[in-house]
Design a protein that fits this description.
The structure is a single chain. With 111 residues, the protein is α+β, with helices and mostly antiparallel strands. The protein has two domains: 2-52, 2-Layer Sandwich (Phosphorylase Kinase, domain 1); 60-108, no CATH class. The protein is 45% helix and 16% strand. The chain has three helices and three strands. It has helices at residues 14-29, 60-85, 88-95, and strands at 2-7, 38-43, 47-52. Strands 1-3-2 form a three-stranded antiparallel β-sheet, with helices on one face. The radius of gyration is 25 Å and the shape is elongated.
Length: 111
């Protein structure tokens, strides 16, 4: 667990004070695997104190980028294979939200 402190005397305006209070309220309601969990928060006379999940994985962001890049590359590779086989136009027609607006060239449709 880690403690985050927001000192009220460092907040420049009522707007920033409202943002700090809103951060606490919204963050306490978020429950998602990709968001650091806020266990509890309190507002004292001089500060907001947030008790949050501790994340020790310094390489997390880089690993996520590599994971997404790998998934993208696999999809791209598969689309290229379909295109080589002449099936890509059918796949695109299926994937389009409104397939009636997609009109493939007659030469690209596999029989």
């Amino acid at each position: 667990m880690i403690r985050k402190t927001i000192l009220k005397d460092k907040l420049m305006s009522e707007t920033q004070y409202g943002y700090a209070r809103r951060e606490c309220t919204i963050h306490s309601q978020l429950k998602h695997e990709n968001v650091v969990e806020l266990y509890d928060y309190t507002e004292g006379k001089s500060e907001f104190v947030l008790l949050m999940e501790y994340c020790n994985d310094a390489n997390y962001f880089q690993e996520k980028i590599e994971e997404v890049r790998t998934q993208y590359n696999l999809v791209y590779r598969d689309l290229l294979r379909l295109r080589i086989r002449g099936s890509c136009s059918r796949l695109l027609a299926i994937c389009c939200k409104d397939s009636t607006t997609y009109t493939p060239a007659a030469s690209s449709i596999a029989t």
